[in-house]
Design goal:
DNA binding, mainly alpha, Rna Polymerase Sigma Factor, Chain: A, transcription, WH-like_DNA-bd_sf, 186 residues, RNA_pol_sigma-70_dom, rod-shaped, RNA polymerase sigma-70 factor (ECF subfamily)
């Protein structure tokens, strides 16, 4: 096609901004091959390239009013959109692959040493038993009801037949003593 017969793409894009469907159709006919070619060079995948090209022309139709022929050429404006959309698609695909990889890694079963876990739990239980042995019988009863029995302070007081204040004091004193014995710092 020689330059004399080629339509003015800038004019077609300006007319497209006014809603001129015929101008847009002509603009599409004269630019689609170059737009698709650029996108295919970036994306490689034919199906994705066609989707992106469709998005580019939809964006050109919807945002043609932002084109200013005093600032650049219509072909440059459209090709810039095409390149940006293609790069966005690559980034989105990469982000999706990265998310899938992260989820896959997260869902992999982790190595679990059941013997070591059992030994640790047993050793910790023994430490707690030794620490519990240092408590008075009244403190041990209150702690056993509250922490092993799951009772509230009020329920501990009712179970032991003591005032609530006394139950609270026994539990507080027992916890202080257990922290000291187990070497726990706040």
């Amino acid at each position: 096609m020689d330059d004399a017969a080629a339509p003015d793409l800038d004019d077609l894009l300006v007319r497209t901004a006014t809603g001129d469907q015929h101008a847009f159709s002509t603009l599409y006919d004269h630019t689609a091959a170059r737009v698709l070619g650029l996108i295919r060079r970036v994306l490689i995948d034919a199906a994705q390239s066609e989707e992106v090209a469709q998005e580019v022309f939809l964006e050109a139709w919807q945002s043609a009013s932002r084109f200013d022929p005093n600032k650049g050429r219509a072909m440059t404006w459209i090709m810039t959109m095409a390149h940006r959309r293609a790069i966005d698609r690559i980034r989105a695909s990469q982000a999706s692959r990265d998310r899938d990889t992260a989820v896959g890694i997260r869902d992999l079963p982790t190595a679990y040493d059941q013997v070591a876990e059992t030994v640790e739990v047993r050793m910790e239980s023994e430490r707690v038993e030794v620490a519990m042995a240092t408590l008075s019988e009244a403190q041990r009863q209150a702690i056993t009801l509250a922490y092993y029995g799951g009772l509230s302070q009020s329920e501990v007081a009712a179970e032991l037949g003591i005032p609530l204040g006394t139950a609270k004091t026994r539990l507080r004193d027992a916890m202080i003593r257990l922290r000291e014995e187990l070497g726990v710092t706040r």
